[in-house]
Amino acid sequence: DDVYQDGESYTLNVANAGEHNFEQLTSNEATVNITDTVDTTTLTLGDITVAEGSDSATVSATLSHATDRAFTVTLSNGATITFAAGATTGTSSAFAVQGEDVYQDGESYTISVVNAGEHNFEQLDTSDTATVTVTDTVDTTTLTLGDITVAEGSDSATVSATLSNPTDRAFTVTLSNGATITFAAGETIGTSSEFAVQGDDVYRDGESYTLSVANAGEHNFEQLDTRDTATVTVTDSVDTVNVTIESNGDVTEAQDAVFTIKADRVLSDDLVVTLSNGDTVTIQAGEQSVAYSVAAQGDDVYADAGSVTLGLTDASVAGKVFEDLQLGGDATVNITDTVDTTTLTLGDITVAEGSDSATVSATLSNPTDRAFTVTLSNGAT
């Protein structure tokens, strides 16, 4: 008994009749037919695992009985396996596998025998299949964020992002400030949604901060490196604050001298203004001016008309520095005299003739603020 297709038929006849005693012995031929018993030979294909990007792959095959002649089987992927006469093992011709890429796309598929070739087995079982597993090699794709510089007061800003490899599907990343960047399938460049930046103001407060990727989204890269950050630089736009002082008008010596200190814009913080006399006044947040009074000289009898002049030496907001502070010039309030009369009274005298001399007294209705001399009509002083 064997596994090959080798059934046969042959004839037998009498070659020697021996020492019989028949008057005549005749004979005929006998036909001997040997039929095959059907024995199955099994062809087994070997599973393989290869990494994506391998140049090619092969599968092995094993026969449960050696073949009595060379024959070739064809696999479902077009590869062929040739068994040499007397062999039980064979290896397929090389076939291509998935190329190297950056995507999560490992795969597994089966190969089967589609043509068993011209073998001589009574029965060849080719139902076995080989599983080809292609594993991902981990290749890194890098996401790079672009730095930006914007002026304060810009309505909004965006940052750009670049992938070192195009994506095979659309996906969205979320930045640390909540903005999102969507990459379309096949693209390497994306731009974030708009986000707010620092509003325009009068203070030196340009700033710089970083944005990072908070969520990489549902991409299909084997490995996506999102460690890069974007630096957002907000530059000051120079806004000028003008602070001035002005007179509220001239006064008499009995009136207070009043000045008004003004800012040319409404601030959201208290503005403290230092005057040239060392005093300070505060323009409250939301206001634009404040009044300042210098006490009245007071009504008197002296010729002392004059003026009060005040200037500005500083203006500040606690914890902040102005981009451009301009202080106005001095202001003057003129003080006019009110005319008050002082009376000089001479005292009468009586003297005896023959007195060597005499004097008269004089009285002022208000004290003098300085020494002075009057001359009488007789030349006395």
Automatic annotation (TrEMBL):
Domain of life assignment: Bacteria
Q: Which organism is it from?
A: Brenneria nigrifluens DSM 30175 = ATCC 13028
Which part of the chain is the LapA adhesin domain?
Answer: 1-37, 39-137, 139-236, 239-338, 340-381
Protein name listed in UniProt: LapA adhesin domain-containing protein
InterPro entries in the record: CalX-like_sf, LapA_adhesin_dom
UniProt cross-references to Pfam families, sorted A to Z: LapA (PF20579)
